Amino acid sequence: MNLSAPFIRRPIGTSLLVLGLSLAGLAAYAELPVAPLPEVDYPTLSVSTRWPGASAEVMAAAITTPLEGQLGQIPSLSRMSSVSGDGISQITLRFDLDRDIDAAEQDVQGALHAASALLPPTLPAPPTYSKANPADVPILSIAVSSRTLSLREVDDRADALLAQRIAQVPGVGLVAKSGGQRPAVRVQADVRALAARGLTLEDLRAAIVASNVHLPTGSLGGARLDHTLVTDDQLVDAAAFRTLVVAERDGRSIRLDDVASVLDGVEDEEAGAWVDGRPAVVLDVLRQPGANILEVAAGVKALLDTLRATAPADLDVEVVIDRTATIRAGFEDVRSTLVLTVLLVVLVMFLFLRSARATLVPGVAVPLSLVLTFGVMHLLGYSLDTLSLMALTIATGFVIDDAIVMVENIARLIEAGRRPYDAALEGARQIGFTIVSLTASLVAVLIPLLFMQGIVGRLFREFAVTLAAAIVLSALISLTLTAMMSAHLLRAEPTPGERTRL
Would you put residue 155 in left (φ > 0), alpha (ψ -120 to 50) or beta? Predict the structure, then answer.
């Protein structure tokens, strides 16, 4: 059976078929995402809870433990870790590799809703979750500063104008803000003054909480009209807190400034960030597990260009850390190595064959096999990363073998006196099974990598599949295009004696 005969007899159809597939491969190359490594991150969600003023022991007992009890019942949860600190609890959930992160998000939301009845009623805000691993390195760090605005105003604008918009970019898992100074009222209790009036710190805390609420007041109903009562009894600055009545003793009102010092301040006085010597707010952008780093970074940068045009002129927005720069540099280095490898392979063939025609026939098979492999990678959802490009670089030495074997056998028959067309038909028939068996043996070597488990197996699976695809495509090209080109390009070389007579 001669697999190459139909293609040898139809050179125009073969050429058009190969040309169409090549254009599809080039189009797929332009669509392939770029990443440092194959996207095999574990689906990870982070649950954070804040309770200002609570110690690490209280956070662990009242917040972390109830949440872990509910979250631990989620299916496909492979690992759960938690950290409890002063005023904050953070639980990291890692799911199985095959777990869809959107489905896991719904399960986490349901578990948090079930755990809400077990949490303290005085918790200022419910737990929040994000599709990001807190151990990941931010892909971008954006500094927001101003030469005229105060840091408190910069924080408000960075939160309203930038952080919320960036969090909506596809692939962004979390926007962590640091260095800002959110306004707060600091109450420094005088223990002696409290004791002299028979009060405790708990009495002081309860009075502040009870007097600083914003709840529905009610309504007034009449014969013709109903009026909804709207009152704003929230306290926003130190002056309003100072006159707060804490308790009544002997018919005398004890106000907050009688037993404490009330000052306008910030939530965290020890947090800060500086850019070029100026205080700034830093936004760290973390990607979702599985999202392409370069695509997410490009989306955030495009959004920043749009926001700069609409943001106030006195607000400076600058990208201070861009992790994608090193990723792109590494990608360009590996890609240049791949191009250089192809050129060296063709050069070595020319040095040995000493014929441009004989070099062109197998030389076309090398870049063509790689271009068609790009199409397979696009169909499988792979990316251009270090491992896939390394597989293509290694494949350069394999894909040339099939073409050389085909050309060598056809050239041998031409030297024996056969016409190039007849030699191509007979040579392809003789060597076709050899090329198929050679390809099968090379692909069989990669089978252990294809069946490796865990994150290492997922990493090298893309490498193995890419290399196997290039090898299989090189065999198909050798049986089709290389055989056809040999029939129409190879010529019988004159012997040394014939050259002398000529």
Answer: alpha
> To the nearest whole percent, how much of the chain has pLDDT over 70?
93
| Spatial CB neighbours of 474, under 8 Å, sequence gap ≥ 6 | 365, 369, 395, 398, 399, 400, 401, 402, 403, 439
Q: Which residues contact 92 (CB under 8 A, 6 or more apart)?
A: 44, 45, 46, 47, 80, 81, 82, 133, 134, 135
Please give the Cα distance from 169 to 303 (Å, whole number). Answer: 8
Using CA atoms, how far residue 382 sits from 226, 246, 454, 458, 472, in Å, is: 64, 65, 18, 12, 18
What is the pLDDT averaged over residues 236-260? 83
Q: How far is CA 211 from CA 122, 229, 236, 483, in A?
A: 14, 18, 12, 89
| pLDDT tens digits for range 474-501 | 999 988 988 888 888 877 665 555 444 4
Structure confidence by residue, pLDDT tens digits, 353-383: 777 777 888 888 888 998 999 999 989 888 8
Look up tokens 């991150």; give the residue.
Answer: 41
pLDDT (mean) for 4-24: 89
Radius of gyration of the chain (CA): 35
Q: Give the position of tokens 């609890």.
A: 89
CB under 8 Å, gap of 24 or more: what pairs does 6-14 form? 7/479, 7/480, 7/481, 7/483, 7/484, 8/421, 8/424, 8/425, 8/428, 8/483, 8/484, 8/487, 11/484, 11/487, 11/488, 14/480, 14/481, 14/484
